[in-house]
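Supplementary Methods, section 5.1.

A reviewer requested that the exact input to the structure prediction be made available. We therefore reproduce it here, unchanged from the version used in the analyses.
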Amino acid sequence: MCGVCGCGEHETRIEEGEAAAAGPARKLHTHTAPENAAAAPVLRDDPAERGTLLKVELDILGKNNAIAAHNRAHFRSHGILALNLVSSPGAGKTTLLVETLQRLSGELTMAVIEGDQETSADADRIRATGVPALQVNTGRGCHLDAEMVDTAFRRLHFHDGVLFIENVGNLVCPAGFDLGEAHKVVIASVTEGEDKPLKYPNLFAASSLMLVSKVDLLPHLEFDVDGLIANARRVNPGIAVIQVSARTGEGVERWLQWLGAARAMAAATA
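The structure derived from this sequence is encoded token-by-token as follows.
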């Protein structure tokens, strides 16, 4: 079992559509599952075991961070702004991304790396906008890592634009795995609790921007948006916040303006 996130051993598949779906799986993520994975956990406090797990965690993260640094340099040399989109499942990442791609169509070059445990449903939705997308299926894995992104990016063949990396829906593990992105963008839906930033502080602390999604539902919910924002800024005082609705378009223009500013900043520091 992985000392970082508990991922089991699995085979990651990267496909470009129906033609690529039948191709051989690429084994990129090599966490090993215990043979007795279904057994009840054994609780113990063994200093030697703690030391071993810490070494495994440091080894895994060290390898990932090295590849992430390579990715970051590669993105910069290709004039690419890479964004890592993270959220709980069902927060509206894909719907907002589709709206974003449609609005920016014809204005700049874009591509998407889609992360899900199974199916190509989200990548199919992205490709329907005309934007190239690669689906990365992580199997039993709960997050993308830098090696997966590196492998997928090499198959996209694009430069001078924006790469959206839609991570697997998870508020825990993506916080610990740098993909080489310029920014993490966390999407928090108003159908979730206001205390999400306090329950999952690492991800909110690592994010440059929080998009509060599905705000068109607020009239039908008891949800404290100000409380959510205050909690996010308790763990990350510098986090930017934009309230959006892909359904009504509210706030989407502000999100696009943020994207434009991020691109300009990336170009200035390239």
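The first helix runs from residue 18 to 21. These observations are discussed further in the main text.
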